[in-house]
Amino acid sequence: MNLWAKLMRYCRRRSPWLFHMNGGSCNGCDIELIASLTPRYDAEQLGVRLEGSPRHADILCITGPITHNAVNAIKTVYDQVCGPKAVVAIGSCPATTNVFIDSRTLEGPLNKHLPVDVFVPGCPPRPDAIIRGVAMAAGILAERAGKNLPVEPVVMPLIGPGCGGACGCGAANHAEAAAGEVLS
Amino acid sequence: MNMTTALARLLIFPGVLFAVPAAWFFLWVERKAVAMMQGRIGPPFMQPFYDFIKLLGKNTPPREGVSGLLMRLWPLIAVSAAAGAVGLLPVLPASGGFEGDLILLLALLELPSMCIVAAGFSSRSIFGEIGSAREAALSVSYNVVFLLAVVSIAASQHTFRLEALAHLPATPLQFLGVAAILICLPAKLHLNPFSLPNAEQEIYSGPMTEYAGPELAMWELSHGLEWVAATGLVATLAAPHLTTWWLAALVFVALSFGIVLLLSAVASATARLAIDTTVRFYWQCTLIFAVLAVASALFLRFRS
């Protein structure tokens, strides 16, 4: 791998810009995504920036069970994000349609329509888990860029006050663990 | 004034070689200062550099025809104008080099914002057009004050030459002018009370909505260079006259840094104003002081 490619990989995993898209979510996950940028969790330490335009974004964060109305919008926005890109499904809804399963107004789950890279389960997931998922997606994006590898979604472990160390963090502060992971 | 010093000033200090890292540094200082004011830790030191390299490696959507060509061109014009403006700053004492005057510097400082207006309209995005219209309205309102302040400084010193302006002993009127320029800087740099044109989330990204990859990298760089040029202009006008070149450079960097901190503090402490409030602020509140400054400068000049 030449020097430029190495530098590019290094920079890509340190600068994930997000675009947030609501696919019929109840707003619970949206609030948690915004909470991950607030002083308590401060995702900007990892270079995360919430962008206003999908053209600027690297990672598309999708919440909600993908309603009939949202599905075409989500596909359009996915095409508007310039490559290399990754998709993070936030919450249990885009993964399984959650409690809305079998509803006739739904087109979910999300991976029927888009190649999802990281699932962050939870109803809603904690901001720590979202930051960790985004950091993971940034890593995947950096590794995959240019190689055109097939997408194999990563399912993040459920973390929370009672995670019992399942996420491997071993610490109360998951954001710190995530930071350590992405910067190592 | 020979060719070598002119090139050295344009390419090394305070030109491109100094200006580009300084642009990234000021972008970082702004983000870090806002983060610290909000009780966050903020981005790592190299963040603007990472963002720039990452954006260079991203794809851009296919652009066709004249508007596609223009969309690639605007960011480049903005970057070169801002870099030229930084290169013109009379930082080092009596070093010779290209002696531009204040009018050229003002024109180069104004070009990036004109490019932003044009860029929004040529992107044909509705949000880009709204952003461009706001940028144009904002530019018309703060520029009157900005130009009057500059005219008052020039009139009080009897010259439009940058070199002379930086090195003549300061008059009290000059400080009034510098204060007026300082009030215009948040609008010029799209900082928070006047961050209307790119109003994040509100109108997506304003004029930048359709720009991606390397084009966006150039916009980020031109924004950083605008920071360096605009704070540098205030720093050179406010700095005391020093004959040692390294001391002059040091004072220049320290003053610019202080102004960046001040502007970031203002940005994080305020919320975005509506366009009519902004225009009223510049036309009604600030204009009076600018007119007073010009009037007293002219009055003093005719008396002397």
Brief overview, please?
The complex is a heterodimer of chains A (184) and B (304). Chain A is α/β, with parallel strands linked by helices.
Largest sheet of chain B: none
SSE arrangement of chain B, N to C: HHHHHHHHHHH
The global form of chain A is globular
Number of strands of chain B: 0
Query: What is the residue-mean pLDDT of chain B, rounded to a whole number?
Result: 85
CATH topology call of chain A? Rossmann fold
Overview of the structural elements:
- The complex is a heterodimer of chains A (184) and B (304).
- Chain A is of the alpha/beta class and 184 residues long.
- Chain A has one domain (3-183): Rossmann fold.
- Chain A is built from six helices and six strands.
- Chain A has helices at 3-14, 28-35, 70-80, 92-96, 127-144, 174-183, and strands at 17-22, 49-50, 59-63, 86-90, 118-120, 154-155.
- In chain A, strands 2-1-3-4-5-6 form a six-stranded parallel beta sheet, sandwiched between helices.
- Chain A is globular, with a radius of gyration of 16 Å.
- Chain B has one domain.
- In chain B, helix 5 packs antiparallel against helix 6.
- Chain B starts with a helix and ends with a helix.
- At the A-B interface, helix 1 and strand 2 of A face helix 3 of B.
What tags apply to this protein structure?
heterodimer; A: 184 residues; alpha/beta; Rossmann fold; six-stranded parallel beta sheet; 12% strand; B: 304 residues; mainly alpha; 11 helices; 0% strand
Secondary-structure map with pairings?
The complex is a heterodimer of chains A (184) and B (304).
Chain A: H1 3-14, E1 17-22, H2 28-35, E2 49-50, E3 59-63, H3 70-80, E4 86-90, H4 92-96, E5 118-120, H5 127-144, E6 154-155, H6 174-183
Helix pairs in contact in A: 1-5, 5-6
Chain B: H1 3-11, H2 16-37, H3 47-56, H4 65-88, H5 102-123, H6 126-157, H7 162-167, H8 172-188, H9 213-238, H10 245-269, H11 275-303
Helix pairs in contact in B: 2-9, 2-10, 3-9, 4-5, 4-9, 5-6, 6-8, 6-11, 8-9, 8-11, 9-10
